[in-house]
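Here is a typical protein record:
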Amino acid sequence: MKLVTCRWCGKEFKPRKNSQKYCDDCRSDPEVERARARERKRKQLERKKKAGKKNDRQKKEKRCLYCGRKLDPSSNRQVWCEKCRKNGYRDTRALYMKKWRAKCRVTGCPGA
């Protein structure tokens, strides 16, 4: 392992783990303990603020593109309800293939 500079005293030391930030002398210092506790508390408050912002967003009501029923999506990309998923996918694929074949007729795509 390479040498690391202690965050508290600035002395270089060889860490026992990759995450070690303080030398052995400073690690048990009460002032360092308080500083580490403040840093943990600050990070915890930041996480709570971020979590609060995510929960404040209101979801738009989604409706199934096939039948029009209200949809409770399991992902943001879901567009069909569970009952209509197979039919919706089939119809979308059929429409795509219809457009592709028409394009191939005009341009003369091989394999069409």
In short: Residues 30-56 form the longest helix (27 residues).
